[in-house]
Amino acid sequence: MTTLTRLEDLLLHSREEAKGIILQLRAARKQLEENNGKLQDAQQYQQNTLLLEAIEQAENIINIIYYRYHNSALVVSEQE
């Protein structure tokens, strides 16, 4: 649980850091979605799909933790 505690501490003190994490996750998601649009074998497609699900869960966890500490949603636009 040390990792989760450090993530909570990070999100508690730095809105910009939280936004940066979300932007990194979005970039990874975009790359995986592009890869899933290309021809690939079933195993690679399954791995990419599992990674996409993990990214979505990570974004949800970050948003929940941020909301818990700040009582407001973390809004991240693509231009940031």
Automatic annotation (TrEMBL):
Coiled-coil features, chain-numbered ranges: 15-45
Q: Does the keyword Coiled coil apply?
A: yes
Source organism, top-level taxon: Bacteria
> Keywords assigned by UniProt?
Coiled coil
Q: Pfam families annotated for this entry?
A: T3SS_needle_E (PF08988)
The name of this protein is: EscE/YscE/SsaE family type III secretion system needle protein co-chaperone
Organism encoding this protein: Salmonella enterica
